[in-house]
Amino acid sequence: MAPDSPPLAGWTSPTLPLAYHLETSLSLHNTPSPEPADPIPAPRRLAPIETLPPELVEAIARAVCRLNPIGPPRQLANLLVLSQRFYDVLGPKNAGFYADLFKERFDGRSVERRWAQMRRIEEKREKRALLETLPEVKPDTELQLDPAMSFTRPSSPSDILPDNKSPWRPLTNKDYAVEFKRRCTVLTNMRRAAQSNAIPPSSSRPSSPRLQAFTPKSGKTKLPEPDELTQNLWTCYLMLLENDGKNLPHLVDYAYLRTYMRLFYNHSLLTEALKPGWPRHTAGRALGLWIGWLGGDDLSTETPQESDERFFVLKPYVFAAHKFDAFFAPWTIPALPVTREEYPVRPPPEGPFLADLRPRSSAQLITHMGRKIEMSPPNLAHAAIFSFFFRVEQDPAAQNDMLGQHGAPAQHMLGAQVANLSPNNPLTTATRPTKTSLPILASRIHDHDFTRLASCIDPYSSLGLPKLYTRGDLTGSWEGRFSFFDFDSYRDMLGGRMRSLYEGPFGDQPQVWKLEEKVVKLEKGQKPGGKGPPLNAGFEVGQSFLSRPNLSSTITQPVASTSSGSMERGTSRRRTSLDIAGGVEVPRAAKRARSWSEHTAFDDLDGEEEDDDPEGDYEILLTGTGHSAWGQFILKGRVRAWDGMFSIIKEYTPDSRGRWIYRGMMVGGNLVGRWRDTHTPLELNGYEGTWIMSRRS
């Protein structure tokens, strides 16, 4: 074919028609095939590990986390970047996985138990409030009901609400997941601070000192939120209260709790003690002292100088009773909440000897378990008292420090009656003090403490604990000791001479109690707290009482007591600890027992009523006997339902050694509080000391 032939010349034939050649040339069958396109990629074959179901992926992650059971699970981050599949399963959207991780690594049952307890208290009060608002309706006798019709009611008023905002509603997986991540952050920050030997400054404002409670127009106190450091301390403290074996290693072994608390001591406690004037009462300092006590300060690693500094720091909180209350509300108030008409908001008293009996609150809105909850910080004085006297027992130098280095000997204040005692009298014999019980980190022991902190928020609005919540706590035999500060030094301290606080000697003596409780139902219109003065635990002057419920009722005339300031401070010039042999049976005190005639007509509910908050008004009364180095005594008192604080009158038999009022509460299974003389008027600061007791084994 010639090169210049047309494109179709090669496809024609002279013997075939032209139409045939055109049809053949234009047919698609003869069209040249195009260049082959890229083939569609075949599906990528997944690795076998990426085809695992989510349950197995979570199981692998949990197994990896168990490689380091203490502290945040650091290996989990490696799994999250392994592939998109692992991130989708183990990422932040999987709240159920992190909830399971929380329950595996932290103590969760105690949290659930306390949340359920608070919810039961809240539900019962909601029901009661709802019933009180309903009008009284008389039944319609002509109303005809369909037998097939059924009536149901919600288990609680909150069930009918579209959105329950109660912080005590059941915890969800999201709550556990949020708390797990927050705890890991707190533990990591504590560890970094301990390793760097410095507590970083808080990213928010510092916590305010304890302020007088107020009630805004909404009828409820607006609580402040803690600063970052105080929130970390809240987390540590609540983890210790919830500990059943899992929480403590995270704090001690990973977060270096003891090192961290030494830093906090230098950061907030020692620096405050070195400033002029009284140290401020803040939630952070209260939490710090409690963490140091519960977490177990290691006294063996302290130098003598550090030990002396600790005593220096603790002394104001222990002995300055007029500045640091041992109660959540003034002990003189028999029942709470109170109204602003009864106790208006006022500035503190100006005189140095005037008692500050204003209702106040130091509660905060804290973060815990993924919720914002209202909590009152634990009492600062309680932790200081426990720590101080435990240190005194463990430090022989501290015991010798207070042996009459200042002023006259003890016999000068005791008078001729004691000065003429024989040399073998135990009052002059220094022996090893009664052992202060170390705290027990078992969550059930601290359930009541948590409920109190979550219930006693504001003395003007909080309902506090259920009426009979503390029933049975005080019954039994107790042993411990009471301490007393040198009377002259104490008087000078009240007058404003702080040097007397640090230089004045103190003493202590063992004592034994045996207490019994009696639940009485108050008559209609009768208020709890009794009709008598607070200095007599609410009992009318001269009112007799029953030492033992099985004793016959006999009425005797009251006997006037001598000055209460003469004997309880008797050995204040010497710090003397005594071992008193014998049990708690006090025959002479039992013979002198008198009937509690005013309450014999009331119903005794011991062992019959299981409800902590029954209908009607009830009160727990206390009776008992005991003995100390000064002789035998009888006890009578009552419990304030709002926070479980009790007031007990201690009267020696014979009564030449005076009558004293003990105020305190059970904290962590032990009793702690302050005693006071009964002759100084309420509006003035009286002569006070501390006391601690534990159950007798």
Write the layout of secondary structure elements.
Layout: H1 18-25, H2 54-65, H3 76-80, H4 84-90, H5 95-105, H6 109-133, H7 173-196, E1 211-212, H8 228-241, H9 247-254, H10 257-273, H11 283-295, H12 304-319, E2 360-361, E3 364-368, E4 371-375, H13 380-394, H14 396-401, H15 410-414, H16 416-419, H17 447-455, E5 476-485, H18 487-494, H19 499-503, E6 506-521, H20 587-591, E7 618-628, E8 631-639, E9 646-653, E10 659-667, E11 670-677, E12 688-695
Antiparallel strand pairs: 1-2, 3-4, 5-6, 5-12, 6-7, 7-8, 8-9, 9-10, 10-11, 11-12
Helix pairs in contact: 5-7, 6-17, 7-10, 8-11, 10-11, 11-13, 12-13
Description:
This protein has 697 residues and is α+β, with helices and mostly antiparallel strands. The protein folds into three domains: 49-91, no CATH class; 92-126 and 166-202 and 209-340 and 352-400 and 441-463, no CATH class; 402-431 and 465-695, no CATH class. The protein is built from 20 helices and twelve strands. The strands form three sheets. An eight-stranded antiparallel beta barrel has the order 5-6-7-8-9-10-11-12. A two-stranded antiparallel sheet has the order 1-2. Helix 10 (257-273) crosses helix 11 (283-295). The longest helix is centred in the N-terminal third of the chain and has 25 residues, at 109-133. It is globular and about 110 Å long. Residues 552-566 have a biased composition (Polar residues). Residues 147-166, 192-225, 552-584 are annotated as: Disordered. Residues 200-210 have a biased composition (Low complexity).
